[in-house]
Amino acid sequence: MDGVATTPDYYEPSLDAKGNYVDSSICLWPDAGLKCACGSRKDFVYGSKTKWNAHTKAHKHKAWLGGLTNNKANHYIQLQKKEDIIRSQITLLTQRENKLSQQELIIESLTNQIARYKLCPTSDLLS
Ligand SMILES: [Zn+2]
């Protein structure tokens, strides 16, 4: 074991000449196995090419490929929507990070004021 943590790859189907999603041949089997997004076996990792090839013949996997093909146009729109969400999340995270930095500076300043006060307490000038 090399000590490097590996995660399974996600299977990526290919497009044929007509633009239909089809199963692609896997030349180099990934060390950590392969996951499929078709949903027939959630979070299952296929550990061998033999098991993978059997999976690709399953009805649910074939239906998933058909669904990808039938919804091709929507994939672009979905991608655009996800990119918009990511951009807005990045903006939100940046704003929160900036606010957090400002609050850390305020806390540091107040902590320093308290420390100075403890070193030099003001005496009661009236007594
Ligand atoms: Zn599948």
Summarize the structure.
By secondary structure, the chain is mainly α. It has three helices and four strands.
Overview of this structure, please?
It is a single chain. By secondary structure, the protein is mainly α. It has two domains: 70 residues, no CATH class; 47 residues. The chain contains three helices and four strands; from the N terminus they run ββββααα. The strands form two sheets. The protein has a two-stranded parallel ribbon with strand order 1-4. It has a two-stranded antiparallel ribbon with strand order 2-3. A hairpin with a 5-residue loop joins strand 2 and strand 3. The protein is elongated. The protein binds zinc ion (ZN). The site of zinc ion has 6 residues, from helix 2.
Low-confidence stretches: none
Radius of gyration: 28 Å
Average pLDDT works out at 90
- Please state the overall shape, judged from the principal axes of the Cα atoms: elongated
In total, how many domains does the architecture comprise? 2
Main sheet summary: 2 strands, parallel
N-to-C order of helices and strands: EEEEHHH
Helix content: 40-55%
The span between the termini is 76 Å
Number of strands: 4
- Number of helical elements: 3
| Strand order across the largest sheet | 1-4
Question: What proportion strand?
Answer: 5-15%
**Structural classification:** mainly alpha
Q: Hetero groups bound?
A: zinc ion
